[in-house]
Amino acid sequence: MLDMVRKAAARLTTNHFDDELELLIAAAKDDLARQGVDKGVLRYEKKPLVKLAIVTYCKAHFGLDNPDSEKYRAAYQSMADELRKSAGYRAEGKPCETR
Question: What local confidence, expressed as pLDDT, does residue 61 receive?
Fold first, then answer.
């Protein structure tokens, strides 16, 4: 996942920011779990929709001078909402109502 985020979200060719990117990946997973996405789905990072949500979260939060941050935050939140409402992604016992 780190390699994908480094290339797709941050567009980096160096590993200089890997600690920050690892933190963002973990924060994205925590945020998705907090919103009701199943932790088992997040643990293995196999599903393309989960990968895309994590990459988008990282795009929104990486760098202090990101002019597209709000656009990516809105896109991430939309993805998180859809994942939370989908049966294959929703945490057991969590309702699927909208926020």
Answer: 94
